[in-house]
Automatic annotation (TrEMBL):
This is Sugar isomerase domain-containing protein. Transmembrane segments: none annotated. GO terms for molecular function: isomerase activity. The keyword Membrane does not apply. Residues 28-200 form the SIS domain. The keyword Isomerase applies. It comes from the Bacteria.
Amino acid sequence: MIHDLVAGALARAGERNSGAIRRAAGLVLAAVRADALVFTGGAGHSLASVAETFYRAGGLACVYPLYHPDLLPLHGAATSTAAERRSGLAAEVLAERAPGPDDVVFVFSNSGVNPYPVELAEAAGAPVVAVTSRASVEAAPRRAHSTLLEQADVVLDTGVRPGDAAFPEDDPRTVALSSLLNVYLWNEVLAHVVTTAAQEGVEVPLWRSSNVEGGDAANVALLDHYRPRVPALR
């Protein structure tokens, strides 16, 4: 029923962001060359996108997930909404491990106006890639002194309608697309990174699935290399 709706949203996102995807991939590849980290952050359901970036079969091993329990709806739905609106939480999260100039930071936020994602980008200390919706940012009530769009070096625009719902098209009330489009754009970046790296002879650190033969053994060296800098890998 929604195949054409979803396929169209994916196609438009790819076309709209072709240049930005290449720029984001360039930042990631620069971090890989420098043996640096890719920090990923978000709040609420955007944490699903953060989870997709971290310790994922076929995913980058050099990812540091930015996280606070209050931000996850499974730990309290109303609490998570309040947390992303709380100024100062981003500084608290970054105090545990701040990005350096060779790192890159991806911030996922559909509305891009709450203090947590805005302050995360503002205080990052590294290039910032925002994965957000320009239309949603423009329509959302301001809750911070700035927006994620204004704080980002590169913007990947999902094109999601304000409110996230996409169905029925004439009166959208369900079928939120932001998570799907976030993951799609992230994977577009990964594909560009791997393609460019192969052309340049750069090895990209990628996880193997632990549920295929040889997967665990292949991941040992990556765990040993990144675990001292990424506590979540313990």
